[in-house]
Design a protein that fits this description.
Blueprint lengths: L2 E4 L1 H7 L4 H8 L3 H9 L6 H11 L3 H4 E4 L8
Antiparallel strand pairs: 1-2
Amino acid sequence: MGELHNRVRELRARDRLSQSELAQLIGASRQTIALIERGDYAPSIVMCLKIAAVFKEQVEAIFYLEGDGENDEQ
């Protein structure tokens, strides 16, 4: 399988949210948001759904796999 990538930082900037503000909205820590943005932490399905709800986006529009050559859609 490919590597998990995300658009969290981009969407946070679009909506002018700090890492701390996003963390508070989804019930996580600021450090968790930083780890997700850097790609050092793969969030749970529940956390992905909460993030998608904050940004009013589909989960697949925020989180995607890249690098295996077969399923690259980005």
